[in-house]
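Dear U.,

Please find below the material for section 3 of the report. The protein was modelled together with pyridoxal-5'-phosphate; I have listed the sequence and SMILES used, followed by the predicted complex structure.
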Amino acid sequence: MKPAQRAQNLPPLFFAALGKRVAELRAQGIDVITLDAGSPDLPPDPRMIEALKRGADDPTQHGYGGYAGQPYLRRAIIDYYGRRFGVELDNRELLPLLGSKEGLANIHLAWLDPGDLSLVPDPGYSSYLYAPLLAGGRVETFDLLPERGWLPNLADIPTASAKAARMLWLNYPNNPTGAVATLEFFTEAVDFCRQFDILLCHDAPYSDLTYDGYIAPSVLQIPEAKTIAIEFNSLSKTYSLAGWRVGMAVGWDVAIEALAAIKTQIDSGLAKPIQMMAADALTGDQSWLEPRNAIYQARRDLCLATFRRLGLETTYPKGGIYIWFRNPPGYSSMDFHTRLLEEAHVALTPGSIYGRNGEGWTRLSLIGDTARLETALTRIERMMKE
Ligand SMILES: Cc1ncc(COP(=O)(O)O)c(C=O)c1O
């Protein structure tokens, strides 16, 4: 007896192996600072927790939450997209998710038949690369390069690949690079996908975690997008709710309906208290987000100043919670990662896990409190000067 091929085909998750090594070091009494994964450390607004508690305390709120979500959450998603992006969603154009990663995986089951092609960015978030394997699909990558601000040149995608492709993934503000996209670029992407009949999948979990007053657009602001695009959004980062698993898919009703059909066989919806909290998050007072983002921005600036002093090239992230910097000369991403972990006891993420174009780069998550971040930077600086 052995597991299915698809389970065997999936590579071990890098962060799981890293977590194991960090636990071993800590068991030896070593103080490891982890700035690898992207789980926000800053808490949600207490008002949201009150909504969650009200739900949890109410004996009528413990049943299934409904495949399509409760009407008040659906209305909250419509309100949020209207207020935040000026995008009018109708009731067939949205679906609550158990975190956006769930939707990222399930859309592949909904859209790819065995052998179908998905076009994915390199570097890019791991789900785009591996979720197609769950559906028996295949992947081709397209380049994101620093000289183009980590935006793809869609015209470089071979016509044969574009004709064969069923999906194309974008993600702005971008993980891991911190790059952002303009509406002009989204227009190009929508036109490209319409030309070749490709489902445009935009992954946008960082759209409200931005800096310097930058306001990230939604791909759905492009008028034709609703006939070709699906956007994944999340409360994990924006509303500091990563562990509670709540997100949404919005956009083209045909794709939403297909995703919903898959999901009815896989999950039974979000817990109602979580839906109450999510609705409150999306529609309540948003003024706490600005000072919260200012804390991440101050951490970003601290890192940028340090890396600049060390002569390390960085991107200038306008959104997301990552610093993307070039390794010191002579290091592969994995070698630099290992030395940082084993000698400086700082866990960062090697850029190479995001694809070929990530080689030579490292990602630091802005998730430690400022004092811990300062200590981590001091350790990195000391190690580099040795
Ligand atoms: C680009 C990107 N997409 C999706 C996710 C998944 O987020 P969620 O917590 O909503 O599943 C992450 C989380 O780090 C991410 O960086």
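For the text of the report, you could mention the following: The chain has two domains: 5-44+288-385, 63-283.

Regards,
Y.
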